[in-house]
């Protein structure tokens, strides 16, 4: 196997070696997936600026609404759940661009496809890393945005849970879109056009759960539907993403 | 069991000639049925006791909405066949379906909005069925956008096929989540078509229109398929023969 000529990988020797070892034979799927996950996390933490961008975007978008609608907390509370979820959806869409781009660029994805490991498992690991790096921080930041939009503090557990579970589904759906648009130049708008219609159920149930939480009503039902979407995504999305990656490598 | 008939379906020249021969068999009945249904729907059927003559737009709206879903399903099945058995003609069928389906979806949206203005007093209502139709339109746009963005035909075929299959899994989920969302946010204040049983004089033209639209779709698909095959096989030698040049 040739050396990977990417300076970032060279700067991250252990991460690079782990990636190469994951591609080696003899490893079980779980081991390979764990190594891919570890590699992606290591690489991401060496470029922290990229990690912060979607979060800053999320914060800015939620700031726009009070300026555009009204500074009255009573009015903002009415739309808080919707604003929060649209902002989270757009932020996670923005973060999708980083999911496969660098790996497609330096040939890592090709090595994964040739490794003899099921690509589905490796895609799942990459998506899991992506969620840990974008979805989870978004969920942890959501209370801040919610409080600034007038949501009561009692609603925080519901909001965090809905964003955390919802972004799992969003990352998985997004992985399909990101894999489909691999190799297309200036794919940003197309990625949005492909991903957003498929994300609508997540938006509906996520916003519903947050809204119920803000009103102090039981929010478990939409949360369960969100979890169902996430489970469906876990079972099917990596298959589709792997198929799309294979096509893009042909 | 002999599979030669199946393998012949994968051959572009065979399909090209078959499409050429079959087109009139679908186009003429489609035209006759649509004209007969228009006469039945616009002239023979009595005006609705609640909606007056306004209900007659259903003869365009319902078949268009029905076709928008049927074309999407056809497209996804063709794409899956192309993806699984690597049949190029199946990808050509899927590619030919998309613009037709998008047009039917747009027609359903426009007629629905025209009907909504006198009936609901608004051009647009966030009715679950209108909303899911709109989302279906976006799915078509995404499919065509993805196909247009990739230059290599084979890659465009296989990539968009994955999208079509993913989309067809999602369509029912989107549909149910949208109607669930809607039922929570607003009471069903609008009257619904189809709840009261339609009388035969109203129903017969509708069914004829439905059949006419289906045949029309097949005819258009066959013509588009021929164009698609010609474009894909433009360097093949059988084209000269087929075109008689």
Description of the structure:
The complex is a heterodimer of chains A (250) and B (245). By secondary structure, chain A is mainly α. Helix content of chain A is 82%, strand content 0%. Chain A has ten helices and no strands. In chain A, helix 2 (13-23) packs parallel to helix 6 (108-114) and helix 7 packs across helix 10. The longest helix of chain A has 33 residues, at 73-105. Chain B has 245 residues and is mainly alpha-helical.
Please describe the structure with a list of short key phrases separated by commas or semicolons:
heterodimer; A: 250 residues; mainly alpha; 10 helices; disordered N terminus; B: 245 residues; 8 helices; 79% helix
Layout of secondary structure:
The complex is a heterodimer of chains A (250) and B (245).
Chain A: H1 7-10, H2 13-23, H3 29-45, H4 48-68, H5 73-105, H6 108-114, H7 119-148, H8 156-180, H9 188-214, H10 220-249
Helix pairs in contact in A: 2-3, 2-6, 3-7, 4-5, 4-7, 5-7, 5-8, 5-9, 7-8, 7-10, 8-9, 8-10, 9-10
Chain B: H1 4-8, H2 12-44, H3 58-85, H4 88-120, H5 128-149, H6 153-185, H7 200-232, H8 238-243
Helix pairs in contact in B: 2-7, 3-4, 3-6, 3-7, 4-5, 4-6, 4-7, 5-6
Quickly describe the structure.
Chain A has 250 residues and is mostly helical. Chain A contains 10 helices and no strands. Helix content of chain B is 79%, strand content 0%.
* Greatest chain-chain contact: A-B, 27 and 28 residues
Head-to-tail CA distance between termini of chain A: 19 Å
- Give me the oligomer status: heterodimer
**Average pLDDT over all residues of chain B:** 85
Estimate the strand proportion of chain B: under 5%
| Shape field of chain A | elongated
Number of helices of chain B: 8
Could you give the order of the helices and strands of chain B?
HHHHHHHH
Q: Main sheet of chain A?
A: none
State the low-pLDDT regions of chain B, or none: 186-195
Q: Helical amount among residues of chain B, as a percent range?
A: over 70%
Enumerate how many helices of chain A there are, as a single number.
10
The radius of gyration over CA of chain A amounts to 19 Å
On the 0-100 scale, what is the average pLDDT of chain A? 86
The share of residues in extended strands of chain A comes to under 5%
Large-scale geometry of chain B: globular
What portion of residues of chain A is helical?
A: over 70%
Q: State the low-pLDDT regions of chain A, or none.
A: 1-17
């Amino acid at each position: 196997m040739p050396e990977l000529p990417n300076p970032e990988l060279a700067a991250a020797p252990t991460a690079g070696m782990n990636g190469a070892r994951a591609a080696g034979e003899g490893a079980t799927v779980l081991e390979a997936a764990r190594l891919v996950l570890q590699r992606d996390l290591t690489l991401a933490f060496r470029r922290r600026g990229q990690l912060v961008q979607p979060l800053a975007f999320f914060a800015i978008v939620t700031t726009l609404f009070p300026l555009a609608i009204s500074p009255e907390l009573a009015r903002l509370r009415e739309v808080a759940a919707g604003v929060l979820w649209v902002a989270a959806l757009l932020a996670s869409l923005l973060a999708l661009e980083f999911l496969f781009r660098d790996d497609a660029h330096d040939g890592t994805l090709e090595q994964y496809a040739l490794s003899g490991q099921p690509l589905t498992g490796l895609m799942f690991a990459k998506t899991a890393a992506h969620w840990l790096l974008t979805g989870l921080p978004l969920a942890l930041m959501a209370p801040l945005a919610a409080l600034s939009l007038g949501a009561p503090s009692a609603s925080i557990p519901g909001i965090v849970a809905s964003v955390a579970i919802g972004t799992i589904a969003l990352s998985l759906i997004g992985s399909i879109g990101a894999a489909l648009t691999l190799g297309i130049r200036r794919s940003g708008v197309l990625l949005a056009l492909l991903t957003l219609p498929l994300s609508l159920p997540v938006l509906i149930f996520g916003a519903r759960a947050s809204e119920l939480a803000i009103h102090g009503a039981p929010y478990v039902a939409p949360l369960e539907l969100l979890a169902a979407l996430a489970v469906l995504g876990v079972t099917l999305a990596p298959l589709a993403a792997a198929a799309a990656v294979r096509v893009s490598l042909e | 069991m002999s599979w030669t008939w199946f393998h012949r379906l994968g051959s572009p020249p065979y399909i090209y000639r078959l499409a050429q021969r079959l087109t009139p068999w679908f186009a003429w009945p489609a035209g006759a049925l649509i004209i007969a249904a228009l006469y039945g729907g616009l002239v023979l059927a009595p005006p609705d006791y609640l909606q007056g003559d306004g209900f007659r737009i259903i003869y365009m709206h319902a078949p268009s909405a029905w076709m928008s879903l049927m074309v999407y399903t056809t497209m996804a099945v063709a794409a899956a066949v192309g993806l699984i058995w690597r049949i190029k003609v199946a990808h050509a069928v899927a590619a030919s379906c998309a613009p037709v389906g998008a047009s039917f979806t747009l027609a359903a949206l426009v007629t629905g909005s025209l009907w909504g203005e006198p009936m609901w007093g608004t051009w647009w209502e966030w009715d679950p069925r209108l909303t899911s139709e709109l989302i279906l339109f976006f799915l078509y746009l995404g499919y065509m956008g993805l196909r247009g963005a990739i230059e290599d035909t084979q890659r465009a075929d296989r990539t968009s096929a994955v999208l079509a299959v993913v989309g067809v899994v999602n369509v029912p989920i989107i549909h149910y989540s949208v109607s669930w969302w809607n039922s929570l946010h607003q009471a069903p204040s609008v009257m619904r078509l189809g709840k009261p049983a339609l009388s035969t004089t109203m129903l017969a033209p509708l069914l004829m229109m439905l059949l006419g639209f289906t045949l029309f779709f097949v005819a258009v698909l066959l013509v588009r398929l021929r164009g698609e095959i010609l474009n894909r096989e433009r360097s093949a030698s059988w084209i000269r023969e087929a075109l008689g040049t």
